[in-house]
TrEMBL record:
It comes from the Eukaryota. It holds the Pfam family Acyl_transf_3. Residues 433-444 have a biased composition (Basic and acidic residues). Residues 423-444 are annotated as: Disordered. InterPro entries: Acyl_transf_3_dom, Acyltransferase_3. The chain crosses the membrane at residues 12-32, 52-72, 104-124, 173-195, 247-267, 379-399. GO terms for molecular function: acyltransferase activity, transferring groups other than amino-acyl groups. This is Acyltransferase 3 domain-containing protein. The keyword Transmembrane applies. It comes from Polyplosphaeria fusca. Residues 7-386 form the Acyltransferase domain.
Amino acid sequence: MAPRDANWIDGLRGIASFMVVCGHLCTAFVPWLHSPAPDPKTAPHLFQLPFFRLAVGGRSAVALFFLITGYVNSIGPIGKSRAGNTDAAFNGIARSALARSGRLILPTMIATFLTWFMANTNAYHMTKHVDSTWIRQGWHRQEPSLYQAFRSLFKAEVETWTIGWDDYDGTQWTLHLFLEASMLVYMTMFATVLVRPKARFLIYGVLYLFFWQKGEGLAVGALKGLNIVFGMFVAELHNHYKDSATSVLPAPVPALMILAGMFMAGYPQDSPHHAAWSHSMSKLMHSVTHKDTDVRRYWDHLGASTVLLGIFFSRNARRVLTSPVFNFVGRVSFPVYLMHNTMIKSVLTWMVYLPSAMNPPRNEKGQQMDLQRGSTTHIFIAVFVFFYILYRLAALWVAHIDPVCAKIVNAATRWAYGEPAPMPNGGPTLRRRSAEKPRTVLPS
């Protein structure tokens, strides 16, 4: 069986990226759906109900990304460790840890450059005047001089990885956490390559308890730590059960786990006290976590983890996630994540607010008021076109930009390892020195 089991994990990653985009669209146009009901005495809308609300909520999808990071980055070292091939495990960890930064930072820098270019060619001008608070908050001015423009670009590129904030694209705040999470995986794998699987399970348990009690404030412990540790735990299960994983549990059990996880992942982002079911969940989680904890992150984690575990044990769920559609959305998931905010602030905003922009509303004093969105039908059509353009651009990114990034990262890592560069015609590699003994290099 292939390490990613015919890419079912990539299909899940594609769902996660799609959910993130849907969540931001909800925040932009229908933020009231983030509550379980308008108020405690009013009946909820269909998409405020459990399960249905996942269609417009993206918070649990971020937890899925961290789970997948823990799973994918640890599955190889765990397999080599269990096989007793510790030298290959250490070699793989070292290579992956070195290349991981480039694989995350380089595409993100390109995405930041693109949104910077859009802002400084005044492509976001309409964004400043729309009636959507979330879109309006993403507006960035056109810098008055070339020097200030490049200075702001440098600042955004650096601060994405230092303070976790990009002035041009606020949705990149998670990326430095993904990089930290990857390094947590590699550090844990490095420390446990020589131990027995049972001991490693015990270590996962200790780490899980540590991060559970650490989740104060923004709950980085729950957002990053718990999901990463659980992802490594599932990777351990993968190497333990191998091909028999989908026949371990009776057929109904994985399906029930997926349903239970979807219910937990639907914990509302806002006003949980507006509905009895979410208010009960809030009280339950507050009773088992730190006083100042953001319990939303804990329910996101528990829901996403239970869904992942259910899919891991389910043959049918894996079969669905390996279908051509899910394989495609999985392949383009990272560029979709990187570009969707830029596309919302430009293409989608232009489509939704163009009729109002052609005849801007003004108050009785003649002052321009916020641009008003089109009808519901108009918005649905605009969102459909937006998704088509977004995924087409993401496919182009995978076809043309990803290979360039991969070549740069591979060249940099080969230089760091002191390895010879491949011949331009694809022939054998050049020897560094005839007197130097050739070195056997294990694949990453």
